[in-house]
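Assemble and predict.
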Amino acid sequence: MTTDLGFWVLQTLNALQLSMLLFLLSVGLTVIFGLMHFVNLAHGSLYAFGAYVAATLSGTLGYWGGFLLAPLAVAVLGAGLYFSLIQSQRRAGPMAQVLVTFGLIFVAVDATRLVWGDLPIGIAIPSFLDGQIALLGVEYPIYRLFIIALGLAILALLTLVLTRTQVGAMIRAGVDNDRMAACLGINVERMFFLVFVVGCALAGLAGAVAAPVLSVTPDMGLQILIPTLIVIVIGGLGSLRGAVAGSLIFGFVQTFGAVLLPTLSSVLIYALLAAVLVTRPEGLLPAKG
Amino acid sequence: MKTNMRAALAGLATGTAMLAGMMSQAHAEDIKVGMLLPYSGVYAALGQDIDDAFALGLETFGADAGATFDIIREDDEVKPPVGLAKTKKLILQDEVDVMVGIVSSGVLGAIRDTVDGAGVPLIVANAGNDEATGEACSPYITRVSFSNHQVNTPMGQWMVGQGVKKVFTIAPDYAAGRQMIDAFTAAFTAAGGEVVGQEWPAFQKTQDFGPFLANAKASGADAVYVFFAGGEAISFVKQYDSFGLKADMPLYGSGFLTSSLYVNAEGPAAEGVITALHYVPTLDNPENAAFVAAFKEKTGRIPSEYAVHGYDAARALVEAVKSGATDRDTLAAALPKVAFTGPRGDLRIDPATNNIVQPIHVYETVAGPDGLTQKVLATLPAVADPVNGCQMPSVN
């Protein structure tokens, strides 16, 4: 089985697909952290909210309606959160932030339960992405390739914005040293808001993309939170490259661990996390500064 | 004189008390039912189905029981310590005569010793852990739902009979997953089949089954046999279909995989999946027709297998009361003796383990006029579970 090339191709695609989903989630979280030094544990809840919105809208507007509107809805929710809680907690220190956003998780879980009920929801894959396609000798679901492509596209877009535009330069300056950036005339507060909302929208997008593959349940946000945190800790807080590296490492270790070393699979990623924390406490590719 | 007076008064008081006692005896018996179910948490929808159907069962059968039933509801939140605390409250503070409910086997394990020690009869309306009516059996615990062993064993023989020789199994790595697949594997290999590979994804930590599906595909099996429930079942069935495996390797499993409760969330991916369960709402018998109609009228939903547990738990309780049981001890003695024909068919309780004995229905999920529905392919005869180390002491 393991000597068969098709097996490796298939599992590599599986690993990439998981990595890209995690990348969409972790990039927002890590940049918010890097820039604002704010720990938003409720990031997973925004992902769940995105999935629910997509599932609800797909009934009336079709899949693409949900796909486009879910990130917007989550961005609006994020903006509301920013003005009601995040802004006032920005200088409150990590303990207060962790407690507030941890509490938000439970509020979010019960709120989704009240609105959408306890039963898991499923939505259909849009028809032209349904089915399989032959690729390098294996049949692979088209929708999963779509997730990989979408992740790569977002990665390219973010890289472009961060390295080639003025906003990107301002964000990088803010991550490196926000006081210095403010002294240079950059409106750091407005930039924080922008980054926070974009991060939320990406979480919502991840939810909308994941909804047809996974089932939409009230606790899906909680389930994805730990992998996302592992990704940003391994990758290094605050950096785009770190989020990419962390996502790829998590995706590949999780996928190949599950099929090659099933007895160790649930320990493997935590062992790796511990190893990274011991040898490189800052993560593999931390933001400079 | 004074002492005489006192004696007379005492006699009068005693007489009045006795009379009052006799009068209340003449009144209808009041049975206090402690209902322990998850009304919140991941199994809240299951708890609601059981609760609604239990109430329906009491309305349907309880009218001429000669007793009134007083239900006290507690939420176990699917957490064993919470379940234990609520059990103690029901037994000690509310002094219930009988307890009903328990969805999670974890909660059942936590409260088993308390219920057994206090001598309170418990009607288990879901939790399927084999041990509860095996090694950890109790004369006070009667199960009217199913056991993991019971639901999966008949499929082993049946699938071999259908020409399936090589099977790959997948189930979440926890007690129920292991018990279900082990029961199937034992029966399947005993009937001449071969299990060519097994995967045990981490329970409630696996959202992507892609890696395991790739292994199943490469194994060369004729079919895949799985157990998943709830959100994991939806993810699994959809992902199985999205990899295009259904055409070459039909999907079989424990019937919770395509439960009527959430099969419509699985959508077309569930079509053609063949599973076995002790109840599906499309069973063709008059008792089930009446049950489905009444449940639909009361709740607007189609009854799931969880609902039928609640309905039959109420029926079992009513039958026990009709046979003359009035308190904890007499109910505990009467409950294992009940037998009746319900929506699931002929039911009885095995006196060796206090577990239900019931037929198992093999069904295929097919498209119907109002979404997906269940087509019963075969009804396999009722077989009592092996005793599994249960040494049942007598109650009285």
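The mean pLDDT of chain B is 88.
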